[in-house]
Design goal:
The complex is a heterodimer of chains A (397) and B (413). The mean pLDDT of chain A is 86. Chain A is built from twelve helices and eleven strands. In chain A, a hairpin with an 8-residue loop joins strand 7 and strand 8. Chain A is of the alpha+beta class. Chain A has two domains: 169 residues, no CATH class; 174 residues, no CATH class. Chain B folds into two domains: 176 residues, no CATH class; 179 residues, no CATH class. Chain B is built from 13 helices and 13 strands. In chain B, helix 2 runs antiparallel to helix 12. Chain B is elongated, with a radius of gyration of 29 Å. The chains are: A alpha+beta (397), B alpha+beta (413). At the A-B interface, helix 2, helix 6 and helix 7 of A face helix 2, strand 4, strand 5 and helix 9 of B.
Chain lengths: 397, 413
């Protein structure tokens, strides 16, 4: 439209005057872009399926018994601990795990190779009952079982994310995999694939997952017990379990953690900073909005004679206020163009490894937000301008 | 002359009430947020119950072991052995408090589960930190050496475990599957007191840890109390000399970095993650400065924009003064002072709002036992901030105003 080109020209002529205003809008856009990126990222992660059940699951840090030397004794001791807990009527399932239990603070990472591709992944050491304890459904193949005791190759399970990276849409079961740098390549075989478990909190994106079976060769000193109890189990049972475990786990304090409670703590950790950020951003934007409102009102007052003249030659009040709003929008478009150029670097350079979709949504939302802000701030002054009587405005001061 | 400027400033502010309102709103809210933040940091870093002698204390919490042959490292606190064997015999300290980090222990009572933070300490812990005892007294060297199962608990723990306001004389508390005799109750400590906060304190000799272990790195903290602030440089000297002679009986690590830091140095060190060099206070202040600048940027721009909008309005006034011989310098001076008056009024409103916000935060449940307050440090900080704010947002508009041509300014609009 010729009108818009004309507006751009008008503003370009007055660019020096408008420079500070455009700078202010640019910085507001950047702030909103940051806020929306975080919000969209968290929202996306929140909507991912959890992949497992955490209700009524307790986790307890567990160390292998001190003073036992050989792997077989440790293995049979641990098996008897598991049988003891399993025999309690309130217990539905028990499983051993490595220390990186869901919603805990530990991470264990490693590098694995398959199909000639190397990937970083989180590694979990688990046993045959892990699937039952956390209620995980397989998407391919099977979970660990007794038959893996005697198989020649070590059985491993991977998650969907890792499968996509290695094999794309192909089946993963039966393929070979190994740790990076291990001496004999290909002595681990994938027996099953599970979905990604959202085990770092509702707002974190789950990553690659690699599950190995606990056996005498990789029993570590630091691990955990996961216990699924029947609904309605109370503190009385927990107290008995605590005493029973205290006689077994002697070296450190025992902390029976409820997984659903840990999830809430983890979520709070992630939400805390973002709430503070939003309070800051909210205040900054209110500031900007009020300032914008004041400046636009003042500028319109300055141009009374011009507006009066236009009305005298026949422009309707409606057209006047539209023009003023359009001017404000053109002004912000100039800032937004610069801001978008800066913002679009984020998905292009894949900063922070966040999906491009998140950045682009955030960019769009921030642009819409700034435009809405400008329209709201220009609306009332525009209406004021539309109500100017030509005769009064053209009066010699 | 200043009185005149003040009168003019107030008259100008009254003329355009809406602009004045918007400016004051922006200024006071910016300052409120920054003042509350300053109160927070002051609470975190400054001396407070029970650590009231912070200005003559040094903290031994930094043990960093490195290897020149491979990239392994351990960054953490000292072990009990290090504090007891190497730091304790030093000459300059008056006292040495040794305390472990907190373990979360479980206590089951009356069908209820309580999570109780447990801290192992030595006897001098109670002499360095000034706890207020509501009942009873702390354990002494004798009880620690004999490994007696005694404990001091916090007021909150007493209320949760025994009942509100109940006396603990002769009572026992069981947590972590161990039964302790309660010998004292202390007033609650804020969680912001990182080294002093716990729910229950017991002698370190009751720890299940193996004290014959000669590892230097471990989960303990040391607080050195000096006789006066003047001892600080001498103490750091003596500490470095000692640290240079500590043998590292380790197959992996061959270099030790350790330091005795003031609280601010320790805090800065942790924020910047620099365990080997000097505490990096310079970097810490630089980062804080940059953050403040970025936060002030948008409100400042806003204020600048609004001031510029009002220039034209006062053009006849400026024109008249210039025609009568006022120099540009005088005008710039006047306008900057007017702007500063505005920001100082905003500051006063900001302090009022921060006071209300702090009262609200203190009584809310967001952080336990929080006692923020606006003390002298925070007030001085706020004045400085409003000065900077006023200058930043006033200089450019003032220069624009004063550089107007007289003829242009006097022209009828």
């Amino acid at each position: 439209m010729i009108m818009i080109a004309h507006l751009f020209k008008l503003i370009w002529n007055r660019k020096k005057q408008n420079f500070l205003l455009m700078l202010e809008m640019l910085i507001s856009f950047i702030v909103m872009f940051a806020v929306f990126t975080l919000l969209v990222y968290y929202y996306k992660n929140y909507n991912l399926p959890k992949g497992f059940d955490y209700d009524h699951v307790w986790s307890i840090k567990y160390n292998d018994p001190q003073g036992m030397q050989d792997a077989d004794s440790i293995a049979s001791f641990n098996a008897s601990v598991k049988r003891m807990i399993q025999s309690l009527p309130e217990v539905q399932a028990v499983s051993f795990s490595s220390i990186n239990v869901p919603f805990g603070d530990a991470n264990m990472g490693t590098s694995v190779i398959s199909n000639k591709i190397t990937e970083q992944t989180e590694v979990y050491r688990v046993d045959d009952d892990y699937k039952k304890t956390l209620n995980i459904n397989l998407t391919e193949g099977r979970w660990f079982s007794k038959e893996d005791d005697i198989s020649k190759e070590k059985a491993v399970v991977i998650n969907e994310a890792l499968k996509q990276r290695f094999f794309g849409a192909e089946n993963a079961v039966g393929k070979l995999i190994n740790y990076e740098g291990a001496p004999n390549p290909g002595n681990m075989r994938i027996v099953g694939v599970i979905p990604e478990l959202k085990d770092k909190g509702d707002f974190s994106a789950p990553g690659n997952g690699f599950y190995v079976r606990i056996d005498t060769s990789n029993q570590g000193r630091d691990g955990a017990l996961l216990i699924k109890v029947r609904p309605g189990t109370g503190a009385a049972f927990e107290s008995r379990l605590y005493k029973a475990l205290a006689n077994i786990i002697r070296s450190t304090s025992i902390d029976i953690l409820h997984m659903d409670q840990q999830r809430i703590y983890k979520n709070r950790q992630m939400l805390g900073p973002i709430i503070i950020l939003m309070v800051f951003a909210g205040f900054l934007i209110i500031n900007v909005a009020l300032g914008l409102f004041g400046i636009l009102w003042y500028n319109i007052n300055k141009r009374r004679s011009e507006i009066g003249l236009r009305r005298a030659v026949g422009a309707s009040g409606h057209a006047i206020s539209l023009q003023l709003i359009a001017e404000a929008l053109v002004l912000s478009t100039m800032s937004l163009l610069v801001g978008s150029f800066f913002a679009v670097q984020f998905p292009l350079l894949n900063i922070f490894n966040i999906a491009s979709g998140v950045y682009l949504s955030a960019l769009l939302l921030a642009v819409l937000f700034i435009y809405s802000l400008v329209i709201v701030c220009a609306f009332y002054p525009g209406r004021q301008a539309a109500g100017i009587y030509p005769a009064v405005a053209l009066h010699e001061d | 002359m200043f009185k005149n400027y003040f009168k003019i400033a107030i008259a100008v502010l009254k003329r355009r009430k809406f602009f004045t309102f918007v400016s004051l709103f922006g200024i006071s809210f910016t300052l409120t947020i920054l003042i509350v933040l300053a109160a927070f940091i002051d609470n975190l870093i400054g001396a407070g119950y029970p650590d009231t002698a912070r200005d003559r204390e040094l903290y031994v919490n930094n043990i960093s072991l490195r290897s020149t042959k491979n990239p392994s490292d351990i960054n953490g606190g000292p072990s009990f052995y290090f504090l007891d064997h190497y730091v304790s015999p030093l000459k300059i300290p008056q006292k040495l408090a040794i305390a472990s980090g907190n373990s979360h222990t479980s206590s089951y009572t009356n069908e209820k589960k309580l999570v109780i933070d447990l801290k192992y300490t030595n006897d001098q812990f109670w002499e360095v930190l000034q706890f207020r005892f509501i009942e009873g007294k702390p354990y002494a060297k004798q009880e620690v050496d004999n490994g007696e199962k005694v404990a001091v608990i916090s007021e909150e723990t007493r209320d949760n475990y025994f009942g509100k306001g109940v006396s603990v004389a002769g009572k026992y508390i069981e947590t972590d599957n161990v039964r302790y005799r309660v010998i004292g109750v202390v007033q609650n400590v804020s969680v912001m007191q990182l080294f002093a906060h716990a729910d229950i304190y017991v002698p370190y000799t009751l720890s299940k840890e193996n004290f014959h272990n000669t590892d230097i790195s471990g989960g303990y903290n040391g607080i050195i109390l000096l006789r006066s602030r003047a001892d600080i440089p001498g103490m750091k000297e003596e500490y470095s000399r000692m640290a240079a002679k500590v043998p590292l009986n380790s197959k992996i690590f061959d270099v030790l970095y350790t330091s005795a830091d003031t609280y601010l140095e320790w805090f800065a060190r942790n924020m910047i993650d620099d365990h080997t060099g000097s505490a990096g206070l310079g970097t810490f202040f630089a980062l804080t400065g940059i953050f403040l600048f970025l936060f002030l940027l948008l409100p400042t721009l806003n204020l600048v924009n609004m001031n510029i909008s009002r220039i034209i309005e006062r053009s006849s006034e400026i024109g008249v003064r210039k025609a009568f011989g006022a120099s540009s310098r005088t005008l710039v001076y006047q306008f900057i002072i007017e702007n500063l008056i505005l920001t100082f009024i905003g500051n006063a409103i900001g302090i009022l709002f921060s006071f209300i916000a702090i009262q609200a935060l203190n009584s809310s449940d967001l952080i336990d036992n929080l006692h923020l307050s606006i003390n002298v440090n925070v007030l001085i900080f706020s004045l400085l901030l409003s000065l900077i704010f006023g200058l930043l947002s006033g200089v450019y508009p003032a220069w624009r105003m004063s550089s107007m041509q007289v003829v242009e300014a006097l022209k009828a609009q």
